[in-house]
Amino acid sequence: MPNDETKNSSKRDGMLLILKALAHPMRLKIIVDLINDEDDAERHCTSFGLTVSKATRSHHFKLLKDVGLISHIDRGNHSLALLRRVALEEEYPGLIHLLKGC
Amino acid sequence: MPNDETKNSSKRDGMLLILKALAHPMRLKIIVDLINDEDDAERHCTSFGLTVSKATRSHHFKLLKDVGLISHIDRGNHSLALLRRVALEEEYPGLIHLLKGC
DNA sequence: TATAAGGTTTGATAAAAATCGAACGTTTAG
DNA sequence: CTAAACGTTCGATTTTTATCAAACCTTATA
């Protein structure tokens, strides 16, 4: 059974990944846009107005998915992003509210 | 008068700086330690158990101060860090609570 | 099924951050 | 006042992250 130090440290590691993922202007914009869309609609990856190559765009969405901020529906020639709102609220309570105003 | 887009974007810029500052294991540990110290004591920069050179340590504390997470009292041969708890709670409500558990 | 329209992966390059040693500054102790 | 102790700044290096073009993959459509 892990002691408190271990528990805290692993929890902090997860938080660190989230913070790293958010610490980039494009990725932060994506997440904030998704948060501010109350309808929780699936969004095309191209619908965020990002002015980078598709390779770079793909890189950022993969990163956001890998840390659990979004789920990512891959339909081959069609890529959709969806905020993991409920899961995030449970795992990192307050995170969404913190970013909401941005 | 700035429109919403401008307002949001500058608010997001501030948030981005905070997120970047927190997106490093040492800096996150420093802030979480300060948050979990309910007494809001001033802490020696050496008291966080960071295993880096003093130049690097100084670099991280400067960064945390520059984004407003801590205030930094420089007494020449003595450096103290203090969480800007009230200001942070006002400017980024929920941030401290979010990090508290880590 | 062939082709077009995305998205992803790979490999290379560019940009940003972290790190350290050395030189310097400031305070305190002797 | 001098030396010791500690923090900061500077310059150079290393490590990490971001970026893109090209090749490839997946789906939809003619």
UniProtKB/TrEMBL annotation, chains A, B:
Stored SMART domains: HTH_ARSR (SM00418)
All residue ranges annotated as the HTH arsR-type domain in the record: 7-102
InterPro entries documented for this protein: HTH_ArsR_DNA-bd_dom (IPR001845), WH-like_DNA-bd_sf (IPR036388), WH_DNA-bd_sf (IPR036390)
Molecular function in Gene Ontology: DNA-binding transcription factor activity
Signal sequence range: none
Identification of the protein by name: ArsR family transcriptional regulator
Gene source species: Marinomonas profundimaris
